[in-house]
Predict the 3D structure of the following.
Amino acid sequence: MDGNFMSDQWVEIGRADQIPTRGARLVRIAGKQIGVFKTAGGEVFALDNQCPHKKGPLTEGIVHDTGVTCPLHNWVIDLQSGKARGADEGCVRTYRIDNRDGRLFLSLAE
């Protein structure tokens, strides 16, 4: 992590154990709705909570490997890149997450 960890760009969003394995939680910060997702392996990712297709709520989707399937039309969004997988095209913004002893911090920096 860079030296700007405690600057305004990093926001504590809770504990990793508050996010269910293969699940998600919605975080509202600075007028944004951000989905925070946890994989079966315990990795945590964050991205805008709107599918690029029809703005479906990704936090209500199914998390599998490092992807989430949108509940509206089954688009699969890659949690690492924010890009749609397969033949679908589109992308959502991703956010950096840092796990510090189980406490999660999210970077709002572009």
User: Anything to note?
Assistant: The CA atoms of residues 14 and 104 lie 6 Å apart.
